[in-house]
Amino acid sequence: MGGLPISVDIGIDVGLLKSEIKKTYASVSQEPGKDFIFPTGLAWAQDLGYPEELSRVPDFVVESFSGVANPWSLGRIESGAHVLDLGSGAGTDSLVAALMVGPTGSVTGIDMTPEMSEQARRGASALGVSNVTFVEGEIEELPFDDGRFDVVISNGVIDLIPDKETAFASIYRVLRPGGRIQFADVTIQRPVSEEGKRKIELWTA
Question: Domain for residue 154, yes or no?
Answer without folding.
Answer: yes
